[in-house]
Amino acid sequence: MKQRPRHIAWLYERRWDSIRYRLLHVLVVVVTFSLTTWARARFMPSPRPAAAWWEHLLQMFSWSWVAAFPAAAIGVVSLIIPQSRRPLDAGTPCDILVCFRIVSRGHNAAALYDTVESVRASMRKRPLFPYCIEVVTDLPVELPPGEDVRGYVVPPEYRTPSESRYKARALHFLTHASPLPADSWLFHCDEESHVTPGLVGGIRDAIVEETARAEQGLTPRIGQGRILYYRHLRRHPLLTLADMIRTGDDVTRFRTQFWSGKLFCGMHGSFILVRCDVERSVSFDVGPEGSVTEDAWWAYQQAYNGREFRWVDGFIVEQSPERWRDFAKQRRRWYSGLWKVCLYAPAPTGARVALMAFLVSWMLSAVGAIYTIVNLTTGLGTPAVPAILGAAVLSWYLSAYWVGLRVNLAAMPPEIRPGRAYRALLYAMQFGLFPLFGIAEAAAMVLAAFWPERGFHVVRKSGVGGATAAQQLSPAS
């Protein structure tokens, strides 16, 4: 049989959620759990029992791992969910207007420029629907010229009725300034989000399906999908590897959430696909408390109003933080803002309780990471139940990093995809540096606990690294 050239074979790679890959992910969890259990028995065969009062107190912290077990279990179960299926008419153009909406303060002008060009490049490759691009900034920014781009600058004196700030203020302003019709669709991007041709196909399939639902009297659902972070893998390998768990979460726990149609662990601020009238039904004027994570506040209020959610095929490519300081502050903002959502936002009771449980387990995971390091240095024994559940949670997190890295590497364009030797090195670094990433996440949680976010920290982002995500061609994205 004649072998396909590499640049052609790449177009026909298996889907990231194929049966083969899902079974491989489960196998990684099982193998990691087995190795973790073996290493504990091999290197700590006779752990020292607690004697002093402080040692008994220290042992109690081992139960912090138990709090993270439900989240890990959901992640493993997520791997069994069948792959999403494309409609028979996938790839057929439709006449529904889609607006790519980008919000930025205006400080990262180069990254913003690249994002606009990535939308254009992807739409040239797959012109499946009419489109426009709306960019709203706090500062005047030079945008690529063209009739498909509309730029808006929020007036410095502009105030919302509820005194919303930051991104929420800009979104509220644009809701009233934009002339988009009610039946058009919005795709929300961050200023560094690179749109891909595969995503264009996923957007097309989702809006056609939701339009058919609307014709049956059902409210169109709100969609979200995968976000990848490989853009600066060579330039900032450590911080990019530290972010692989975010993609791992997307294709497991977040995918399960959107597969169920409900919210239980939040929603990202980018990669939001929503029909205009549905978005406008809930105001972005969320006040100061909701302005830290306005995306989650808005999503939970939509859920409170009975809206449902869905998974969207395809992916966008964003950037990981370029400094450890930004990494920690980014996590701190998420954690602080999500607690405000739990305490103050309109939300269904079940969704509020689930988010609270998720946040508690997030913080206790940090406690568990600190306990693990202290336990290894003291040689104290750990009770059997938290030891087993802790090994299971550790195995899940390790596999989530591995899954995230595999999905990112598989999606990279051939011209920038690392060779086999470098990929093997990246997998080794992903496993070997896992303790470092755990410490970084734990430090961010400590920062959030003692110095909660009171503003909106903007992560510094540079321009294109390597190749734009728009260069990707895979129809199976």
**How many separate domains make up the residues?**
1
The order of strands across the largest sheet is 3-2-1-4-7
Write down how many β-strands occur, each being a DSSP E stretch of 2 or more residues: 8
Average pLDDT, all residues? 86
The share of residues in helices is 40-55%
The best one-word shape is: globular
Output the keywords.
477 residues; alpha/beta; Spore Coat Polysaccharide Biosynthesis Protein SpsA, Chain A; 8 strands; disordered N terminus; disordered C terminus
Question: Would you mind describing this structure in some detail?
Answer:
With 477 residues, the protein is of the alpha/beta class. It has a single domain (14-477), classed as Spore Coat Polysaccharide Biosynthesis Protein SpsA, Chain A (Alpha-Beta Complex), CATH 3.90.550.10. It contains 17 helices and eight strands. α4 (64-78) crosses α14 and α4 (64-78) packs across α15 (384-411).
